[in-house]
Each structure stands twice: as structure tokens, then as C-alpha cells.
Amino acid sequence: MVVRIRFARGPKVAEKRSKNRRIALATAGLLTPVAFLVGVVGLWRLTADLGFTAGFAISSGIFSHWQVWLATAVLLEVCARLLNRYGRSGDAAAS
What we know:
Helix content is 60%, strand content 0%.
């Protein structure tokens, strides 16, 4: 005795780019304020080195240098702009 089980055909699996674009736009929207805050911390460290403000919270290690903070802020903002460009590339209104 042979039993055959037949399954109905389901929907085709398709890659949805719109979800990726929405996630990219949301991430870019969050990265810009984070980049601003990291830049403020970098400026705080720079003014602490110049003696304008009180001591900085991190006194040793890689994060005790203002260059690291400002470079990280620039890198985060570049990433936010690239994600914005990717997220808006599929919009007909943006073209």
C-alpha cells in the first residue's frame, strides 16, 4: 500500500526590499542624534584638555582622547547619510 500526501502550493517567497529600506531609514534616524551626542562628548573632552571645563569622566584608555570621540561622531554621521541614501533610493518621489 502506497500513501501519497499532496500539499497545496503556497505563496512564492519573494525578497522584499521595502522592509530593508524602512529599517535603514529608522536606523539612520537614530544614528544622527547619537552622532551629535558623541560629538558633544568629544568637545567636552577637548575643552577639558584646554582647561575650560572640569575633568573628563574617562581619564585613561582609548576613549580618553578627544580625537577618538570626534572621529566616531563623523563616522556615525557618514553611516547615517549612507543609510538615508539607501533608504530613499526606491522612492519615486525622492527622484
